[in-house]
């Protein structure tokens, strides 16, 4: 009677793939960052400007595009310690009124401490009325070179008249 014995050489590629899986390698450097983003569309010095206006919505409608250079701070108060800037754009990609969703393409540019000059790139779908949204971190530079991970975003405050918002970010990355 023959007993099946798996060939160890056939298992070697599977073990190699598992060892290289993202986030599983023991040499990965992990980081958790927490900060607030101040997205201001109103006033004489906004940090976000609508550059494409497709709709006649008061704040933001389907197809509208906004370019940002938003301050990032340690706390929700704009006067709290600076962390960096969020530079990029977002566009309203949903047509419904109760399911507002944005496409975000942002570089989180860090300007303080050991992360000064480093960036993280975030690209994803943001269903703005969900209590917590998850967006992918798709890359980085400087101390975040080859970073991958995700960002959890919560709306700390939102002025529905002006569109001004403060967003709380928790970013988890590995390199």
Layout of helices and strands:
Layout: H1 8-19, E1 30-39, E2 48-52, E3 65-73, E4 82-92, E5 101-110, E6 119-127, E7 133-141, E8 148-158, E9 165-174
Antiparallel strand pairs: 1-3, 1-9, 2-3, 3-4, 4-5, 5-6, 6-7, 7-8, 8-9
For the biggest sheet, the summary is: 8 strands, antiparallel, barrel
Q: What would the principal axes of the Cα set say about the shape?
A: globular
**Helix/strand order:** HEEEEEEEEE
User: What structural class results from the helix and strand content?
Assistant: mainly beta
If helices are DSSP runs of H or I spanning 4 or more residues, what is the number of helices?
Answer: 1
Radius of gyration: 21 Å
Strand content: over 45%
Counting DSSP E segments of at least 2 residues, the number of strands comes to: 9
- Strand order in the largest sheet: 1-3-4-5-6-7-8-9
Terminal CA distance:
51 Å
- Helix fraction bin: under 10%
The overall pLDDT, averaged over residues, is 87
The unreliable regions are: 7-26
């Amino acid at each position: 009677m023959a007993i099946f014995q798996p060939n160890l050489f056939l298992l070697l590629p599977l073990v190699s793939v598992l060892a290289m899986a993202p986030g599983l390698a023991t040499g990965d450097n992990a980081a958790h960052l927490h900060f607030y983003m101040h997205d201001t569309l109103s006033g004489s010095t906004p940090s976000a400007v609508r550059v494409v206006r497709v709709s006649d919505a008061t704040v933001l409608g389907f197809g509208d595009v906004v370019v940002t250079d938003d301050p990032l701070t340690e706390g929700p108060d704009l006067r709290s310690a600076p962390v960096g800037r969020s530079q990029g754009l977002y566009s309203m990609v949903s047509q419904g009124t109760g399911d507002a969703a944005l496409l975000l393409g942002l570089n989180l540019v860090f300007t303080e401490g050991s992360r000064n000059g480093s960036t993280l790139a975030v690209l994803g779908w943001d269903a703005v009325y969900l209590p917590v949204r998850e967006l992918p971190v798709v890359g980085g530079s400087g101390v975040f070179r080859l970073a991958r991970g995700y960002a959890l975003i919560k709306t700390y405050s939102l002025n529905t008249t002006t569109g001004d918002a403060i967003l709380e970010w928790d970013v988890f990355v590995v390199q």
